[in-house]
Structure prediction request, 941 residues.
Amino acid sequence: MQRFILRRLGVFVLVVWLASTVNFIVPRLAPVNPIRERLLQAVSQGGAAKSDLEQVVAYYEAKFGLDQPLWKQYLNFLWDMLRLDFGVSIANFPAKAMDIILRALPWTLVFLTVAVLIAFAVGTFLGALIAWPRAPRFLQFLVAPLLTLSAIPYYLLGLVLIFLLAFTWRIFPMGGGYDLGLVPKLDLAFLANAAKHSILPALSIVLSGIGSWALGMRGMMVSTLGEDYIALAEAKGLAGREVFMRYAVRNALLPQTTSLALSMGTVAAGAVIVEVVFGYPGVGTILYQAIRSFDYFVIYGVVMMIIVSIGLVTFALDVLYPVLDPRISYERK
Amino acid sequence: MNGYVVQVENLKVYYPTSSGPVKAVDGVSFNLGAREKLGLVGESGCGKSTLALSLLRLIKPPGRIEGGRILLNGVDLTQLSWDKMRRVRLNQISLIPQGAMNSLNPVMRVRNQIMDGMRAHNQSMSRQELEARVYETLELVGLERNVATMYPHELSGGMKQRVCVAIAISLRPQVVVADEPTSALDVVVQRQVMETIGQLQEELGAAVILIGHDMGLMAQFVERLAVMYAGRLVEAGGIREVFRQPLHPYTQLLISSVPLLDEKGVFRGIPGLTPSLLHVPSGCIFHPRCPQAQDTCTEEVPPLVEVGPSRWVACHRHEVER
Amino acid sequence: MAARPARDISLIRRHPQLITGLAILLVLIVIGPVGSLFVDTKEAKVGAALPDLPPSARYPLGTDTYGRNLLPMLFLGTPQTIKIGLLAGAIGLGVGIILGFVAGYTGGIVDNIIRGAADILLTVPGLLLLVVIAVSIKGTVSVNMMAIVVSILAWMWPTRTIRAQVLTLREREFVRMAKLGGMKGAEIIVRELVPNLLPYLASSFVGAVASAILATIGLEALGLGPQNQPTLGMTIYWALYYTAVLRGLWWWWAPPIVIIVLTFMGLFLVSAGLDQIANPRLRRLT
Prediction:
C-alpha cells in the first residue's frame, strides 16, 4: 500500500519539478532575459518606490545575476519554489506575489470545485441514461444540444451567458465576485452576494462540462453494454434499474473517472479564462492582469499554484482508483 | 397440456438487415420433458445459441422472435410482458452462459452476484437466509465457502464457470439452458464441470438443454439429441439410437467426423461451407453439401416427420421409409 | 457465412457522423477564400468605417470599435485560425507518429520515458505552460510561430494512440508472419503496420487539430496571439478588451463563437466517425 502511494506521490513531485524547470528555463532561452528587462523598466519608470525597486533588482541580480553560475541559479530557484516564495509583484510593488495569489485562490477553488462536481455528476448520469436502451426515447433529442455544449469552450459560453442572462435579461450580475462597494467579510450577506456572482461563471463550466461528460459516459456505456456480464445480469431476471446502476454504470464509471483525472488540466485552463471574461476575482484574473503588465513573478506563481493544485487532485484520484476498481490493488502482485 | 415442461412450436427468430432478414432460427419445434437431458448440437452459426437465448427471450434488437410459440408449463413466453418474463428468468428457466470469463461483473463479489438474482425474485428472504443459500449453492457446485467474498478476477476459468452454474441453480429452476458451458475450458476442467452439472441435475430435478458442437460430450451427457443445421432441426431422437443409426446425412457426417482412437491420423470433415442465412438454399437446406442429394432435395423443403417413437428426421430419403 | 450482403447502402447512411463532420469542416475552410471574393477585404482595416455599428445591409456583421468591417474580418480570420490548427495538428501528428512508433516498437526504458512525458503533459494545464512561453517571447508573434508554440500541446494524444496501436499490432500474427518471411523492421512498419493504423492516424490528427485550435483561441483570448492578425481568438480578445459585452456589441463576438463552435462540432463528428470505422462496435451509436 505504501509503495503505491509513494509512486503516485513521486509522479506528483516529478510534475511539480518539471513545471518549475520550465518556468526557469524559458525566460533564459530568450536572447534577452525578459525578467531582467522588466525589472529594469520598472526601476526606470521611477516613482516613490524607486529605491525599493532598486533593492529588488539588486536582490534579483545577486540570486539570478549573470555572474552566478547557471546551476546555482537553478538551485536557488527550486528552493524558492519549494517554499512557495515567488518573489514580489513588479506591477503591484511592494506586494508579494504569493499574497496576491493567496487572496484570489479561495475564490477559484470554491467555485471551480462545485462547478466540476455538479457537471461531472449530472453529465455522467445523463450520458448513462441516454445510452440505456430502455430509457425514454425523448432523451435522444438531448444528444444534439449536448454535443453543441461540449463544443463550446467554457469562456465563450460564458460570454453568451453574460449577454443573455446579465445584459439582456438582468437576472444575474454582469461580473465581478461581489457587488461594488461591498467589503469582503465572512458573513452570510456577503457570502450570499458572492454566491450570486459566481452562478454565471459556474454555469458556463457546468453546462459545457455536462455536454462533454455526458457524451463521454454515453460512449463508455455503449462499450460496457456489449459485455457478457450485462447479458448474464439480464438472464438472471434482475430489474432494469439494478442492471443499469450496479452492472452498467458501475463499470462504465471506471474509464469515466480516468477521463476526469486526465481532463483536469483542460478544465483548469478553461476556468482561468472564464474568470477573465467575468472579471471574477480568482487566480485567472490575477494571471490575466499579470500578463498584461508582464508581472513575471506573479505569472510563474499562478502557474505553479495551479499545477500544484491539479497535481494534488490527480494524486487523490489516483489513490482513490483502486477503491473503485477491485482489479487494481494497492499491492504489487 | 401434457407432461412436457417446454414445448417449442415452429419458432422463428430473424435479424432484419437492409438486404433482407437473416433467418437465424427458421421453424424449429421440439419438446422437453421434466428432468430430461436434451442435447442440441450443430456447427458454429447454425442458430443454436440464438435458440438458447430466445428461450429466455434475451434476443437483442434488431433481432426478434418472428413467429412460433415457446410454452413453459403451458404458458407462452413469447406473449408475456417484459416484466412477467423477467420474473420467469432464473426462477423457472435459467441460463449457464458460454463465456464465463466475462460473464461475471468484475466489480462485484461472488456472493453478491449470486444473491442479487435470488433477491430479485424473492423479496421475503432475510439477509441470513440469502447468505446461507449462497454457501449452500457454492457447496453444491464444489466450491469452497471463501469463494463467496472473492472478486471474479481472483478465480480461475473453471471456478468462474462453476459460479455461473451456481447462479443458474440458485433458485432451483425447472429448466436450465447450458449454452456451450465448457467450450472455453480445457478437457480436464471440462469433465469436472460437466460432472457437476450432471450431479446437480440429478439432485435438483431440473431439465437441462445442453447446447454444443462436441458430439463426444453429447454422447456422455444427454439422453436425447437434436441436430441443428442452418437454423433448422434436421434430426432428433434418443442419444443411443441417433449414434447407432443416424438417419440424416448431416448427422451421419457429424458422427463420422469424431476421431476414433483406433483410426489414428484419419480425419473426416464435411466438405463445403455453412450456407448464408440471408440467402438460404432452395428446398432442403443441406442439399449443396449432401452426398446423398436427389432432385427433390433442391425443390422441396423436407418436413420434420416422426419416423419412430420420439424419432424425428427432416430428409426426403426417410419419408419413404415410414 | 458463404455469401456477403450486397453493399447497396449509400455512403452517407453508413457513416452519417463522418460525412456531416467533413461537410461542416469543408464549409469552414472555403468560407474564408470564397467570402473574400465577394467582400472588400480592405474594409477589415482600422478606420475603414464608423465604429460600433450594428449589423445592417451595408455591414452584415456590423463594425467594431476600431471601425473595422467585421464580415471581411471574419473571412480573413477564419482561415488563419484553421491554418494554425492544421499546421500545429500536422506537427503534433508528425511528432506523435515518430514518438509513438519508437515507444511502441522499442519498448523498455525508452517507452517508459516517452509515455511518462506524454501522460504528464496531458494532465498539466498545458495552456499555462504556453502562457509562460508566449509571455517570454518579445515582439509580435506570427501565425506560424503560434502554430509551433501550440503544437507543443498537440503531440500527446497522437503519441498515446499510436503507441497503443503499435503495441497491439506488434504482437499480431501477421507481423510474426512477415518477420518469418524475412521482412526487415522498417519494411514491416511501412507495408504491414501503416495500413492498419490509418484510421487511428486520421483520428489522432483530428484530435491534435482540435487541441491545437482550443489552445490557440485560449492564448489569443488572453492577448498572447499574433497581434495584427484578425484570427478568431484575437477578435474575441479585442472584443473583451473594449468591453463589447457590457456595451451590447454582440455582433462583434457572437460570429466568431459560432464559427468556433461549428469547428469543434465538425472536428468531433469527424473524430467520432473515424472511431466508428476503426471500432465497428460503436456503429450502433448513430
Summary: The first strand of chain B starts at residue 4 and ends at 17. Residues 162 and 215 of chain B are 22 Å apart (CA to CA). Chain B touches chain C at residues 17-19, 45, 273-279 (CB under 8 Å).
